[in-house]
UniProtKB/TrEMBL annotation:
It comes from the Bacteria. PANTHER family: ABC TRANSPORTER PERMEASE PROTEIN YPHD-RELATED-RELATED, RIBOSE IMPORT PERMEASE PROTEIN RBSC. Signal peptide: none annotated. Residues 1-22 are annotated as: Disordered. This is ABC transporter permease. The chain crosses the membrane at residues 32-51, 63-83, 89-107. Keywords: Membrane, Transmembrane, Transmembrane helix. It comes from Brevibacterium pityocampae.
Amino acid sequence: MSTTTTETRAAGPTASGPPQRTGLLSRLRSSLQQMLAFVSLIVLFIFFTVANPDFASVSNISGILLATAVIGILALGTTFVIITGGIDLSIGTGMTLCSVMVGVFLTY
């Protein structure tokens, strides 16, 4: 009595097959997504500078940077909390506590 075995191979590219392009496309797509926010910021800056030449003044740029400093510091603190594994997204509560404490310290 003889038996025969049949081998089934999984469909798909093998090591000797053609190189896959999905790796290149996925890397290109992820780098495009990362650069999209920065490019959008540059486009908005150029648009508002052309619309109003006073937009690119030193006092306006420093005002914009000072206005975004608080949110940037809060985002940095929240990033460290998320990285360490503690998922606590209560930025509003922390900002309120800091505002109250600054108000209390300024009155004394």
